[in-house]
Amino acid sequence: MTTVPSGDGDTASGHPRLRHNALGVGDILGVSLADTAPAMSFFFSFAAIAAAAGVASPIAIVVAAIAVLLKLNSLVEFTKVIPSAGSYVSYIAKAFGGRVGVVTAWALGFGYIVAVGYVMAVMGGFTSQVIQQYLHVHVPWQPIAVVFVVLVSYLVYRGVTISARWASASFAFELALIVVAMIAIVVHYHNQLSLVSLDPAKISRGISGLGLAFPLAVFLFIGVGNPGAMVEETRDARRSVPRAIYTAVIVATIIYVLMAVTTSIAFHNDPTTIGNLAAPFVTAASHALGPFAILVYLAGLTSTFSSLLGATTAQTRILFSAGRDGMLPRGLARLSSRHQTPVSALAVYWIGAGVMTLIWASTGNPLVLAGDIATLGTIPIALTYLALNIALPVYYLRFHREAFAPLRHLVIPVLGVASLILPLWGLIKPGQPYPFNVFPYIALAVIAIGVVVSLATGHRVRPLAEAPFDPLAEATD
């Protein structure tokens, strides 16, 4: 019999529960695509990718997409057998035990809170820039960012169905504007049409150039697996979530490749010119659209908003689940009695991100400092992805040896680990300029704090990590 939540989302078993069967595969697909934020990600990343890989930069994007699919295999395989809102944290804990789960929760929680500061800074800075350009009025970026955070928080508080569908609708609008911009570029530069950018032989410096571009291209997809944290609220989650995540990677890859090709056409397939521009696609689209150039800026604003909404919806659920399992303070597991949303996790998420971003990004240009913020947040996130790929074969060999499939549960995770080494090394390698040379030590300090906390509290969460309740099973007949 279906268990009905009571009080603040508590079930008869005493475990806080999210709202079941609130989402369909279309909702999850929309959130996954919204999290990738194609316009925002591509606008501010493609120049560096083109400078590294040369005219054949779309090839680097395709290679990165393959690596992302390898990484997502572990998330999908865990989701099929033990779906949990804790996502990466829960799965790693189930393979290695509660103490490792605590360390993962602290590291990933820190990474997510910092990384969303990147989106917050871009949202405020980019909107302020657009207002200045079109209305000739200067509005500081900080209050703009705060207004968007309040709006996003309200939508997330209202319930997962509302936030997911707002994210999906925002992505659909963003995609429509991107398509309009690409068509305008092709029409405007029709005398320069060429597919030379799809020729692998045109990659600058061969494997070396591809290696330089690869970490940048991988980060175009960094949020695509976030909806794995929404399994408890998704109908037929064991099938719907994997399908949606894989489809999102394929759709995002197509979008990125088409944007790369059209941008290359606009600049005569000259990677030097592209690499010297801050946002080459925006420049090309602005020339092609003429008086309608504001459409490409609207695409960027919508992209940032949908990413902010999608990331908040998914990542607060990971914090909530880690609190529910005792891997983070249990206060994070509090749900609103009316909408059954993780209000405590939402508050901690935005207080942490807001204070850090408003202080850090106010020391200079927020659009420049946003990249610094993203780099710091990405380090613990990338380490978590690495640990998840190691956790999959360990989990199956410990608990489901009879279902162990060498290709899916060993070979692909090993390839996933290999695909992450290069971008991770790019983040932590010695000799980088300030502040990037400090970031690995900050990440290491956060992990050390997690280790100390795990030694003090890990024994309490080990039973939950190794044999947790099944929130999906409790919701079915």
TrEMBL record:
<protein>
    <submittedName>
        <fullName>Amino acid permease-associated region</fullName>
    </submittedName>
</protein>
<dbReference type="GO" id="GO:0022857">
    <property type="term" value="F:transmembrane transporter activity"/>
</dbReference>
<keyword id="KW-1133">Transmembrane helix</keyword>
<dbReference type="GO" id="GO:0005886">
    <property type="term" value="C:plasma membrane"/>
</dbReference>
<feature type="transmembrane region" description="Helical">
    <location>
        <begin position="245"/>
        <end position="268"/>
    </location>
</feature>
<feature type="transmembrane region" description="Helical">
    <location>
        <begin position="373"/>
        <end position="397"/>
    </location>
</feature>
<feature type="transmembrane region" description="Helical">
    <location>
        <begin position="100"/>
        <end position="121"/>
    </location>
</feature>
<feature type="transmembrane region" description="Helical">
    <location>
        <begin position="409"/>
        <end position="428"/>
    </location>
</feature>
<keyword id="KW-1003">Cell membrane</keyword>
<feature type="transmembrane region" description="Helical">
    <location>
        <begin position="203"/>
        <end position="224"/>
    </location>
</feature>
<dbReference type="InterPro" id="IPR050367">
    <property type="entry name" value="APC_superfamily"/>
</dbReference>
<keyword id="KW-0812">Transmembrane</keyword>
<feature type="transmembrane region" description="Helical">
    <location>
        <begin position="169"/>
        <end position="191"/>
    </location>
</feature>
<feature type="transmembrane region" description="Helical">
    <location>
        <begin position="141"/>
        <end position="157"/>
    </location>
</feature>
<dbReference type="InterPro" id="IPR002293">
    <property type="entry name" value="AA/rel_permease1"/>
</dbReference>
<feature type="transmembrane region" description="Helical">
    <location>
        <begin position="343"/>
        <end position="361"/>
    </location>
</feature>
<keyword id="KW-0472">Membrane</keyword>
<dbReference type="Pfam" id="PF13520">
    <property type="entry name" value="AA_permease_2"/>
</dbReference>
<feature type="transmembrane region" description="Helical">
    <location>
        <begin position="288"/>
        <end position="311"/>
    </location>
</feature>
<feature type="transmembrane region" description="Helical">
    <location>
        <begin position="434"/>
        <end position="456"/>
    </location>
</feature>
<feature type="transmembrane region" description="Helical">
    <location>
        <begin position="42"/>
        <end position="70"/>
    </location>
</feature>
